[in-house]
Design a protein that fits this description.
By secondary structure, the protein is of the alpha/beta class. Helix content is about 45%, strand content about 15%.
């Protein structure tokens, strides 16, 4: 049984990675239904939290049907991190996670996220301070290092464990790589083999199929896998991986009906939680993935990512179901006029 503190996650948990504008409550609910064992929120700026910025505070929303949940924060100043940790604790997540892996320039330039990989002593000091400032189990998500010349992830793992973290997720790239090239899990495996390491080690990076999940589980001996970009518009990846682990069989791809049903539910939840404007706009990154592989889908995708009216979006989804389920298409006049441009 893999545990983070007293939080039980099963024998080999699958985790949803924290992703900005993706791993929000609407999407987390869908991933949970598909078998994801633990969710992480979008990463939250500690400066935004302590200043009561609306967007940061909203990210603290947690619902009982998605637990266990880890709230992830990023920052670089000790006092700000401490104050943010107190706010996070009031939201009652199961875990507090520190982001030491975000490679985005606007985060890194403040020595937050992956920027702190340039100063390991500071990274350890900050982590130690957070662990002592909260009653929640603390985990960390990070990368292999700043660049190929400064990889110190083995030292980082030991030192962070020594100051009290309860789990470590490692993305198999350096900050310099961003998301390019292939993730290198070799060092993740070495950390898991280290006899000094007793906390759970979760691997992250490039897991995009059940076969690869099983291969990396067996090859590198990690305690679980964290899945990020491969889940966007594809919450089924969690159930597909678990089915493969249990049976060795590959599930067929979701039917058109299931794709439309899932997209409708996602859109409905997004509208309920974010309101009409943001609920519509922030769904757009998912549509292409939900319907990936459908032939001649481009005109429908264009409609989905340019339309603002929720009613019309639901009509478009109904038309997709008719069109790609090989049934007689009943095109509403409004959708027909938009398809004809």
């Amino acid at each position: 049984m893999v545990k983070i503190g007293q939080v039980e996650l099963g024998e080999f948990p699958l985790l949803l990675a924290p992703m900005e504008d993706v791993s929000d409550p609407p999407f987390r609910a869908l991933c949970k239904k598909q078998g994801c064992d633990m969710m992480y929120t979008e990463f939250i700026s500690v400066e935004g939290l302590i200043r009561d910025a609306r967007k940061s505070v909203e990210k603290l929303d947690i619902y009982d049907d998605e637990r266990p949940v880890g709230i992830q924060i990023f920052g670089a100043e000790l006092d700000s991190m401490r104050r943010a940790a107190e706010i996070v604790e009031e939201a009652k997540p199961e875990v507090l996670d520190i982001n030491f892996g975000c490679p985005v320039k606007k985060v890194v330039c403040k020595m937050a996220g992956a920027g702190i990989l340039q100063d390991i002593d500071r990274m350890v000091e900050l982590t130690d301070y957070i662990v002592k400032s909260t009653n929640l189990p603390v985990t960390v998500k990070t990368r292999l290092g700043w660049d190929d010349q400064t990889i110190k992830i083995e030292e980082v793992a030991e030192r962070l464990q020594d100051v009290g973290i309860k789990g470590l997720s490692i993305h198999g790239r350096t900050r310099k790589q961003m998301y390019k090239g292939e993730a290198d899990w070799t060092l993740i495996g070495k950390i898991k083999e280290n006899p000094r390491i007793h906390i759970p080690i979760f691997g992250n990076g490039d897991i995009n199929s059940p076969q690869k999940a099983a291969e990396y589980r067996d090859r590198y001996g990690v305690d679980g896998i964290m899945i990020g970009r491969a889940s966007i518009g594809n919450p089924w990846i969690f159930s597909e991986i678990k089915h493969y682990f249990e049976t060795g069989e590959i599930l067929p791809p979701p039917s058109t009906y299931e794709r439309v049903r899932m997209t409708r539910e996602h859109l409905e939840r997004s509208l309920d939680w974010k309101g009409e404007k943001l609920g519509v706009v922030e769904m757009r990154r998912h549509y292409g993935q939900y319907f990936r592989g459908l032939p001649h889908f481009k005109p429908y995708r264009k409609l989905l990512v340019t339309e603002y009216d929720p009613k019309i979006l639901f009509e478009i989804l109904d038309q997709i179901l008719d069109r790609f389920a090989d049934t007689e298409a009943i095109v509403t006049p409004l959708v027909l006029s938009k398809l004809k441009g």
